[in-house]
């Protein structure tokens, strides 16, 4: 699959932009702050329903506008699909497929992309929430119905937390909260599915991550991923415990999740009532990343951390490529090459060379390996000012 045409209206700093694209590599070049990343961010949003730079949608809508519109014509063989998304400052966002309305959460079913960005270093060095988001975005692209499961889980979690906070404020004991058991049942039902899906995904990523890491580094540092689950006693969101938590054995984690979840809630209920918050569930899980048997967070060098983050994205792309009926995902490299030394640049370029479409942003063209510079698009202040190898309207 590739994006054949991208249209933006009132998106970030673009009042309007129309860009024809094609298979192969395209490099967007321009000084920092001109809008290169905005172009590729919009493509990533169609796949993940989120930005890799901000948590909300308001920043994506141009100042003074009520809504932003992203349109992408996707091509796979002889098939074309027009995907449209309207981000509204007020009210729910809206989506269309071939001009027919659909739920926004349906878009990842059709638009597949994997985005590499400097922010990806946080996958290795950052908080558990970053790694949870990485896994969940990949899960939704592979199994779109899980977006609904995640939304339902978040709703139940908010309701349960609200009840716990109210009970704490009123000094109520557990036996005075019969509705808590009802919320527990839904939390366990939805949360167990998410836990099992994540654990299975971590297991699937193992070999592709190891292969991708070797392709970038040309060394075997034994990269590993291990689930760290709150239902088994790990508490990665509690400061000081994240690195000390013992990662769960994937074989054990896949067995009897509901029972373990139920028991964990029973044991932790007094502490939850004391703190007014849900202390167990997929919202408090992590995946521990290891190099040579040691946690990458805290032990890996800057270069090793970057290589691990890139390997995770490459492995994600390989899983999408393997499972998809629409061909390769679009690969997006947002200002990545500036962070890498020459050898890693060349090895990364070689590793992604076989994908149908690769979109690269760079402040300096010299940072981009020559095999990826077949087509160059210059960006200045939200305008496509010059292209080498094609023409377009702005």
UniProtKB/TrEMBL annotation:
Main localization category: cytoplasm
Localization per record: Cytoplasm
SUPFAM superfamilies, A to Z: P-loop containing nucleoside triphosphate hydrolases
Coiled coil (residue ranges): none
InterPro entries: DNA-binding_RecF (IPR001238), DNA-binding_RecF_CS (IPR018078), P-loop_NTPase (IPR027417), RecF/RecN/SMC_N (IPR003395), RecF_2 (IPR042174)
GO molecular function, one term: single-stranded DNA binding
Pfam families for this protein: SMC_N
UniProt KW DNA damage keyword: yes
Gene Ontology cellular-component annotations: cytoplasm
Domain RecF/RecN/SMC N-terminal: 3-362
GO biological process entries: DNA replication; DNA synthesis involved in DNA repair; double-strand break repair; SOS response
Region Disordered: start-end pairs: 227-249
Positions bound to ATP: 30-37
Keywords from the named record: ATP-binding, Cytoplasm, DNA damage, DNA repair, DNA replication, DNA-binding, Nucleotide-binding, SOS response
Function: The RecF protein is involved in DNA metabolism; it is required for DNA replication and normal SOS inducibility. RecF binds preferentially to single-stranded, linear DNA. It also seems to bind ATP.
Matching HAMAP family: RecF (MF_00365)
Family as reported in the entry's similarity comment: Belongs to the RecF family.
Cited NCBIfam families: recf
The protein's name in its UniProt record: DNA replication and repair protein RecF
Organism: Agromyces ramosus
């Amino acid at each position: 699959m590739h994006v054949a045409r991208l249209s933006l209206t009132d998106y970030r700093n673009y009042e309007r932009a129309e860009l024809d694209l094609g298979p192969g590599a395209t490099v967007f070049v321009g000084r920092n702050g001109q809008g290169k990343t905005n172009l590729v961010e919009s493509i990533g949003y169609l796949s993940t329903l989120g930005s890799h730079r901000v948590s909300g949608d308001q920043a994506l809508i141009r100042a003074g506008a009520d809504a932003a519109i992203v349109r992408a014509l996707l091509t796979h063989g002889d098939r074309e699909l027009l995907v449209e998304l309207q981000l509204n400052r007020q009210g729910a966002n809206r989506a269309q497929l071939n001009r027919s309305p659909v739920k926004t959460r349906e878009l990842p079913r059709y638009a597949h992309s994997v985005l590499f960005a400097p922010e990806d270093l946080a996958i290795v060095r950052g908080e558990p929430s970053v790694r949870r988001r990485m896994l969940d975005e990949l899960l939704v692209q592979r199994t779109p119905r899980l977006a609904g499961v995640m939304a339902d889980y978040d709703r139940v979690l908010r309701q349960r937390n609200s009840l716990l906070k109210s009970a704490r404020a009123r000094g109520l004991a557990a036996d005075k909260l019969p509705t808590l058991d009802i919320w527990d049942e839904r939390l366990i039902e939805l949360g167990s599915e998410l836990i099992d899906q994540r654990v299975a995904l971590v297991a699937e990523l193992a070999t592709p991550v190891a292969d991708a890491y070797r392709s970038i580094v040309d060394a075997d540092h034994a990269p590993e991923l291990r689930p760290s689950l709150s239902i088994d006693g790990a508490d990665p969101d509690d400061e000081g415990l994240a690195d000390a938590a013992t990662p769960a054995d994937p074989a054990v984690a896949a067995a009897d999740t509901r029972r373990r979840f139920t028991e964990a809630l029973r044991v932790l209920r007094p502490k939850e009532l004391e703190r007014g918050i849900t202390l167990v569930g997929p919202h408090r899980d992590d995946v521990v990343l290891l190099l040579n048997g040691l946690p990458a967070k805290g032990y890996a060098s800057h270069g090793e951390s970057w290589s691990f983050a890139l390997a995770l994205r490459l492995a994600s792309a390989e899983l999408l490529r393997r499972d998809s009926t629409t061909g390769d995902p679009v690969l997006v490299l947002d200002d990545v090459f500036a962070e890498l030394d020459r050898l890693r640049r060349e090895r990364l370029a070689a590793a992604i060379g076989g994908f149908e479409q690769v979109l690269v942003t760079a402040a300096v063209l010299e940072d981009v390996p020559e095999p990826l510079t077949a087509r160059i698009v210059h960006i200045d202040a939200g305008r496509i000012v010059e292209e080498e190898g094609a023409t377009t309207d702005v």
